[in-house]
Specification:
single chain; AB_hydrolase_1; globular; membrane; seven-stranded parallel β-sheet; alpha/beta; Rossmann fold; 7 strands; 38% helix
């Protein structure tokens, strides 16, 4: 009951979809939750099936369904408060799958934030011959190395953004060793001119290599609160970089 009352209080809510390694309790994730919480956002997160203490076996479809279920759970309890979706790394694939479905059924979130995103899983894997991003994926051995099962995994952010209509913010560090910076920039260059974003702003924020934020430390940026306030605070169309 406490959770339900809290969600109905007048604070925006961020549904956080985590990346491939570890659980919802990973250090860098908890640090980001603290930052977001200090800015006045509720943060709701969970482990996909097969991660953490969640039962089941991971699959792209299952992970997307899990995210949809949690989104609907939040919406049923959040009143008129804005709900934003934040995906990181592999979680950006879940996020764009989810938001594409939400837009198709005409219940879009109030904004989508993609931190360290790739274009699609094949391009991400090509940039890492040893498949860094998959290494910690539960069931990695069979799930990705069997060509029959791996061919069914797309996480096609580049295709999904063409069917998404809500404000989009992309954050990427230039020195990211896991998802190359140019994949995030390429995703922005696909999204910004897309017809689906005609009435919404699309923004790309790079973080210079000298800052050392790499793949999972953008939460350390002292600029992050201002970036989020400015992006989430207004919703008129504005394509900026």
């Amino acid at each position: 009951m406490w959770y339900e009352d809290a969600l109905a209080s007048s604070h925006a809510i961020i549904l956080y979809l985590h990346g491939n390694a570890g659980t919802r309790g990973g250090d860098h994730r908890v640090e980001l939750y603290k930052v977001l919480s200090s800015l006045g956002y509720h943060v709701v997160t969970f482990d996909y099936r097969g991660w953490g203490d969640s039962v089941g076996t991971p699959s792209e479809r299952g992970m997307t369904y899990d995210a949809l279920h949690v989104f609907d759970w939040i919406k049923a309890r959040s009143g008129d408060n804005p709900v934003y979706i934040w995906g990181h790394s592999l979680g950006t694939g879940v996020a764009t799958n989810l938001v594409r479905r939400l837009c198709e059924r005409e219940t879009p979130p109030d904004a989508l934030i993609l931190e360290s995103p790739f274009t699609n899983i094949r391009e991400e894997a090509k940039s890492h011959p040893f498949s860094v991003i998959y290494r910690y994926f539960p069931g990695f051995d069979w799930f990705f190395l069997d060509p029959i099962t791996s061919s069914g995994i797309k996480f096609a952010n580049d295709e999904n953004v063409k069917h998404i209509s809500c404000p989009l913010l992309i954050l990427h560090a230039e020195d990211d060793p896991v998802v190359p910076f140019q994949l995030g920039r390429k995703l922005y260059s696909i999204a910004a001119p897309a017809r689906s974003f005609r009435d919404f702003k699309v923004q790309f924020v790079p973080f210079h290599s000298d800052l050392g934020y790499r793949h999972k430390y953008i939460y350390k940026s002292p600029e992050l609160p201002r970036i989020l306030r400015e992006f989430l605070g207004k919703s008129e169309p504005e394509h900026q970089h």
